Amino acid sequence: MTRLAVFDCDGTLVDSQSNIVNAMTAALETEGLPPLPRATVLGIVGLSIFEAVAALLPRHDAAAHHRIAQAYKAAFHAQRARGEIHEPLYDGIRATLDTLAADGWQLGVATGKSDRGLALCLAHHGLTDHFVTLQTADRHPSKPHPSMLDRAMADAGASPADTVMIGDTGYDIAMGRAAGVATIGVSWGYHHTDLLIAAGATHIATHARDLPALLAALTPETA
């Protein structure tokens, strides 16, 4: 039996909120728009960038959404070129990933990041080799569509019954439910736990160290 734990990235593995807010503010400026409140911007983390911009600016048309999405990507790349990207791991994440791997879990990532952004983030933290499947917005519809999880399960040879989605937003939880897998919300990210519960999270983890026991309870290993 293959047990697969799939993690969101931003807000679950790493805290990238300053990068996201700064890039969105810069992107909005290209259209002459004022910055949005930090909480508003963080509320759309997890969506692919076009869908995120559309959710933030519902009164603007698709052409404006496209321009702002492209400006966001350019602003993020500029931050990286200036050495301003700050994506620290959340407390306990590295140890938790090591524990899960030792316990026989296959690990994956399903994120709204680009392929390049995710690769650079994982490489920076020396975590690339921890994951057997990496799914990003470059190759899939935006969350909560189940495509990322469907591909992750196919890559790992796991079934929905033996897969768990772990994330900090309602989009992660909704994606997990759409794919028919168990879900764990994490309290240290960008959506309030009430939203995670409303989306259908099976459990809420308040610290990374909670995850191995929660995962074991959701998908007990059988001989």
What Rg do the Cα atoms give? 17 Å
Q: Which stretches of 5+ consecutive residues score pLDDT under 50? A: none
* CATH architecture assignment name of the largest domain: 3-Layer(aba) Sandwich
Number of alpha- plus pi-helical segments: 10
CATH homologous superfamily placement of the largest domain:
HAD superfamily/HAD-like
Helix content: 40-55%
Quote the CATH topology of the largest domain: Rossmann fold
Overall shape: it is: globular
How many domains? 2
Please write the string of helix (H) and strand (E) elements.
EHHHHHEHEHEHEHEH
**What's the number of extended β-strand segments?**
6
What is the strand content?
5-15%
Strand ordering within the main sheet: 3-2-1-4-5-6
- CATH top-level class of the largest domain: Alpha Beta
Question: Could you please describe the fold and organization of this structure?
Answer:
The chain has 223 residues and is an alpha/beta fold. It has helices at 17-29, 38-42, 49-56, 62-81, 93-102, 115-124, 147-156, 170-179, 193-199, 211-218; strands spanning 4-7, 106-110, 133-135, 163-167, 182-186, 203-205. The protein has a six-stranded parallel sheet with strand order 3-2-1-4-5-6, sandwiched between helices. Strand 4 (163-167), helix 8 (170-179) and strand 5 (182-186) form a beta-alpha-beta unit. The radius of gyration is 17 Å and the shape is globular.
